[in-house]
Amino acid sequence: MTQMHRVGAPFDVGHEFEPFVRDSGFPYWNRYAAVNDEFIDIHMDDEAGQAAGYPTAFGMGNLTWAYFHVALHRWLGDESRVVSLSTQFRSAVTRGTQVVVRGTVSAVRVSGAETVLEIDMRAEDSNGNRLAPATAVIALA
């Protein structure tokens, strides 16, 4: 696993981690749906997505939420602990959208033996349109 910033290294406010990128569409949604038993028409059928007002079927919101977790663990490694993560979905991830997760350290503090990072995150499409803003609090041993 690649770590952009090793645990124990200094973390500065303003540091941005390398973007985490994922394509979207049926192959990805089917895998997620299989694990979560979430085979819902709006996520699997373009006509159902169009009937709901979207140009195509659209991905599960919780899959985008999972991408935030993956991005954090890819950046900080498995020794990090997600204390909290919150997001607000602003736009659906339609078939063919590339999801880009970005994050910036907004605060650093020491709590006991742990370094605690507050991170402003966002999921965007490849054109920079915001899909979901998020905030995370991460503890590093």
Provide the fold topology.
Blueprint: E1 20-23, H1 26-36, H2 41-44, H3 46-51, H4 61-76, E2 80-87, E3 98-111, E4 114-124, E5 130-140
Antiparallel strand pairs: 1-3, 2-5, 3-4, 4-5
Q: Care to describe what's here?
A:
This is MaoC/PaaZ C-terminal domain-containing protein. With 141 residues, the chain is α+β, with helices and mostly antiparallel strands. The chain has helices at 26-36, 41-44, 46-51, 61-76; strands spanning 20-23, 80-87, 98-111, 114-124, 130-140. It has a domain at 20-24 and 59-140: Thiol Ester Dehydrase, Chain A. It has a five-stranded antiparallel sheet with strand order 1-3-4-5-2, covered by helices on one side. β3 and β4 form a beta hairpin.
Summarize the structure.
The chain has 141 residues and is an alpha+beta fold.
